[in-house]
Amino acid sequence: RGFRGFNSQDIAYTVGGLATARRPQPELFSCLSDLLVRRDDWSDFTPQALSTTLWAYATLRHRSAPLFDAVAGIVLGHDTAATATAPRTGLRLSRFSPHDISLTLWAFAALSQPSPRLFDAV
């Protein structure tokens, strides 16, 4: 069955709960990263769900450069196939709350995940 049926809120709550409980699950996080990177429709993701998901990865020190690169591309509006769905999802930096921006940038910084264009955009 797996995680294919999970929506953005399911993903954010799952990884966020594990991070809050300080329960690393490397295989689960790797599986979710792979699914997210291959995702071609991000229409159910909100800035809050996205920032919470990245926060969880960083809190548990789970690196996924492909996931973070995909997210940066979506948020900035380029460099990913998922970009086509981003305009109707609200996944543009201008739609992020200050809290969502701070969680997102913290996650990139905590994992030493370079994204100069994302940081410059803020």
UniProtKB/TrEMBL annotation:
GO terms for molecular function: RNA binding. One of its GO terms (cellular component) is ribonucleoprotein granule. It comes from the Eukaryota. InterPro entries: FAST_kinase. One of its GO terms (biological process) is mitochondrial RNA processing. This is Anaphase-promoting complex subunit 1. It comes from Tetraselmis chuii.
